[in-house]
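Narrative summary of target 7.
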Amino acid sequence: MIERTAIHDIRLGLREAPAVCLLGPRQVGKTTLAHHLAEEMAGIYLDLESPADLAKLSDPEAYLSLHLDKLVVLDEVHRFPGLFPSLRGLIDRARRQGTGTGRYLLLGSASLDLLRQSGESLAGRLHFTELTAFHVGEPVARPLPTHWLRGGFPGSLLATSDAASLRWRRNFIRTYLERDIPQFGGRMAQEALARLWTMLAHRQGAPLNLAELARSLGADTRTIGGYVDLMCDLFLLRRLPPWHANVGKRLVKSPRVYLRDSGVLHALLGLESSDALLGHPVAGASWEGFVIENLLASAPEGTRAHYYRTGGGAEMDLLLELPGAGLWAVEIKRSTAPAPSRGFHESSADLRPTRRFIVYPGTERFPLGDGIEAIPLPDLANTLVAGGK
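Modeled conformation, tokenized:
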């Protein structure tokens, strides 16, 4: 198993809390990680999509009471919402018996219902961890251009060829369209949903305009907004909020939207190779989204992310509020000879960040003057993993 950085946070959570909830999209590696931890801790694994395992939980309190002394892994727990009240009682019983931590590892592929259920039933008893797709700080043994093209899902990134990777991603997209999105309440026709996903891919990094999307699909704004919310809750889409501050200028207030996995983005756009990607108009926005996802996956807990843009054109691709390290400004360039833009200088004057970086696809780290540093993506990701030091 490739060592995932999230495993350290899971172990910490199991030492400190009765239950850990591991969230992330399908096929991102949650089950592999859970099996590894169950073996390591001599625990039990139950798949709530398996009829045999569901049968064991026909009386969940009776079954789980037999295993209060060990870790129990419950996969796809959002499929069994009635389980949460039972877990609360069992956790409290284990606490009274002096075994109040490390009892349950809950796995879920959607945040919306799971967060609501756990918030109602397991408040104060749950530690949350998100498992992202592979990021550049993990030992995947793939060059950066391959990682960007294929994205970070294990089945795609570790495929034997670009063609095999693309087939995996197309099947992944089809599974979500046919099964997973309808499972969470979606009623839009599959063809219309595929068009929405593709339209969002073409608008990678652009401000979210629900009215424009609704007109293009012949749907109402509320319906499209609901599907955008659902795709965010399924970890497929990211809304990057604008920076709000009293800087005396008119600020852009719409969030920017990014497909979170670059490989899924490229599959939706039919980009089969690095050459096809580099020749496509979305290449710059794709690289920007790839950098943002990798930096946020590497950032310390409590980091808040925004973008900044004024009506006059001052712009910052990414602002990171790091706990104890101030505000970091990041401009993202695809050029191998990076230089700060005028908008970067103007936004720096408005915001006065503590550190300023230009991320580029090179391999050397060097100063650009005026306190700005050109930095490769892996270097900045490693700096964030170290807490900004």
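The longest strand covers residues 315-322.
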